[in-house]
DNA sequence: AATCTTATTGACAACGTTGTCACAAAGGTA
DNA sequence: TACCTTTGTGACAACGTTGTCAATAAGATT
């Protein structure tokens, strides 16, 4: 490994001068700089992170702690967004996956500490409140896609209420009145928020919200639920007074509704309009007709979380803003206007 | 930050003794160990990675360089698999995403070097040959889901030929004879290999392979292809002598074939059997009927890649094995036996 | 009793970098 | 000429850890 000392010797200057050049310190004569830079390139010198870290007491890594986010198709974009933002100032992402194991989580907090991470993003798979233990970590922590029960931590979350509103509003504007809803688990905060948004849309359109048209499409424990949207859709669609549109808690549920419609010989969107959530490309862009859905802005959430980690260092103790990222409606082909 | 020195002072021993205890060195009296361990726990001491790295010249991080793998639903399991194996000896994963940009890739190689990564896994989104530049990195490099054009690097790849064989063999065993095929881009190595496997299966069953039943289902550049499986499926299924089964290059294509079948009023698997590839859960487990498919063992590929990184350090220069990971058939409900 | 092992511990240097301080040379001002 | 400022450079220490080697104490062997 080439060191400052070796470059310095070769260039005939002191290591401090080389250090200055590497770090873009202005106080170096131009010709010295150029000469040394040549040697640096030629010898392929790369500054040793370990030594830098040790000397400066800080690193250029940001940690990403997740229950499963980095490992599930739903929200990998958080990672992409975080990286995009990190890249801008040459920082690095270390990722840790707890699979929900608290012991593992504790170990990873120590790991982040050992690596002198400048901050940690704590991302959850579902938008929900998250009570973090005692993270044994004294730098910036920003929650992504979740928020602390105690409200004492900065967090970046999707605007689920707005998303729910957008879903219902769009269908209502298209003229639908009998709108069925197949929700995610009620244990997820998002479910409550979106319901609130939908009801607001119904109210604004002067349409009565019918509670018996609302079903839960995913049952069981959070991480390993069973998707029952197919059965729910079947039962709703076989009634004589069936809904003309179905709002789904995510695109996976929507896919099952497509299957149910196909099974019953209903064509989409002619006989039934279907609205998803998430904009999970492999489903939303692939289905025919392509799925109209509301995008979960994971990329932006990840990006924003990193931005907040950077910000956090300048802030004082109690800093705990809750940033809402909008969920835009993505109109494709699965919803039609009623005449 | 608590240091060895502080613990040593508090415990009334030398820093070296504490160091020994932290590292599980046997040569410490039991009672000393216990006493010091108490202090360590109480003071919440965590060894400084930077200092360790600097002293030992090696870190405990493994790099993961990808074009897009960590960011696409298809293959995030590589990350999970890698982490699972890494966790066993408390190693850490640093991930780098190049989005296919060579300049960025060069920068990340330097970054890995700066972090003294013990090895790097170079993962590609599609199983294909990959000509790596001059990676400016002198430790273990293992390719995952791709292999070097020059054949000079260790790699872990899925057994696509076996997978193709499994797809065809299963349908042939079920009695299908007119089997349509909708492939991925011919630019992907996997496409060639699977085709070979399928033809072997046809041969073994004494069935003639009909080339006009094979269509390409994804066209355009590798990273941003257009999925046209829907149209391909429609055209194949509208012919009078339509195939009784369709083999797809992946589950996304299969999803479009489901849509095409629904559009034509064909029921699956009654009128048409559909076989996928990848076992992308959001599709394969969600569809009704659930998709029979061949699993792409990404988790195992990631895990194995890490194992090979560890192995690599013991090996000599030219070490470049090509490890094949089997692709198991996952039987669900989308294929039926012909009477 | 003298010597040799073995077990346990500590002093010290070194890893590669950067912050602090100092010094020399050059230029400007009185 | 004497003094001050600015510019460019280098010597040295320190960050926290571990490897090397030495020192001590305790026990075993002759």
Structure description:
Two copies of one chain form a homodimer. Chain A has helices at 4-11, 15-22, 30-43, 49-56, 77-87, 102-114, 160-173, 189-204, 229-238, 251-264, 281-284, 298-312, and strands at residues 61-66, 92-97, 119-130, 140-148, 154-158, 179-183, 214-216, 218-219, 226-227, 245-248, 273-275, 293-294, 322-325, 329-330. Chain A is elongated, with a radius of gyration of 26 Å. Chain A is an alpha/beta fold. The termini of chain A are far apart. In chain A, the strands form four sheets. Chain A has a six-stranded parallel β-sheet with strand order 2-1-3-4-5-13, sandwiched between helices. Chain A has a four-stranded parallel β-sheet with strand order 7-6-10-11, sandwiched between helices. In chain A, strands 8-9 form a two-stranded antiparallel sheet. At the A-B interface, α4, α5, β2, α6 and α10 of A face α4, α5, β2, α6 and α10 of B. β2 of chain A pairs antiparallel with β2 (92-97) of chain B, so a sheet runs across the interface. The structure holds a DNA duplex (30 and 30 nucleotides).
């Amino acid at each position: 490994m080439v060191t400052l000392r070796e470059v310095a010797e070769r260039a005939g200057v002191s290591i401090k001068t080389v250090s200055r050049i590497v770090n873009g310190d202005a106080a170096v004569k131009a010709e010295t700089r150029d000469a040394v830079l040549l040697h640096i390139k030629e010898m392929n010198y790369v500054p040793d992170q370990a030594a830098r870290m040790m000397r400066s007491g800080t690193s250029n890594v940001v940690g990403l702690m997740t229950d499963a986010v980095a490992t599930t198709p739903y929200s990998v974009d958080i990672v992409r967004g975080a990286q995009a933002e990190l890249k801008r100032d040459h920082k690095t992402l270390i990722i840790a996956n707890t699979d929900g194991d608290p012991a593992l989580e504790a170990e990873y907090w120590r790991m982040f500490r050992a690596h002198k991470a400048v901050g940690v993003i704590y991302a959850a798979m579902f938008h929900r409140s998250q009570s973090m233990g005692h993270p044994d970590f004294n730098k910036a922590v920003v929650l992504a896609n979740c928020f602390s029960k105690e409200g004492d931590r900065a967090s970046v979350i999707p605007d689920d209420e707005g998303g729910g509103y957008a879903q219902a509003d769009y269908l209502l504007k298209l003229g639908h009145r009998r709108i069925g809803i197949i929700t995610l688990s009620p244990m997820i905060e998002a479910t409550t928020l979106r319901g609130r948004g939908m009801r607001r849309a119904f109210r604004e359109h002067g349409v009565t919200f019918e509670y018996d048209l609302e079903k839960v499409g995913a049952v069981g424990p959070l991480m390993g639920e069973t998707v029952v949207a197919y059965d729910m859709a079947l039962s709703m669609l076989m009634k004589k007074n069936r809904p003309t549109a179905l709002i789904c808690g995510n695109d996976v549920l929507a896919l099952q509704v497509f299957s149910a419609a196909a099974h019953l010989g209903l064509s989409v969107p002619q006989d039934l309009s279907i609205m998803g959530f998430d904009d999970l490309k492999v489903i939303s862009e692939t289905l025919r007709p392509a799925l109209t859905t509301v995008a979960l802005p994971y990329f932006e959430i990840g990006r924003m979380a990193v931005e907040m980690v950077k910000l956090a260092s300048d802030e004082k103790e109690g800093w705990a803003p809750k940033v809402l990222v909008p969920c835009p409606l993505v109109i494709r082909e699965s919803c039609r206007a009623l005449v």
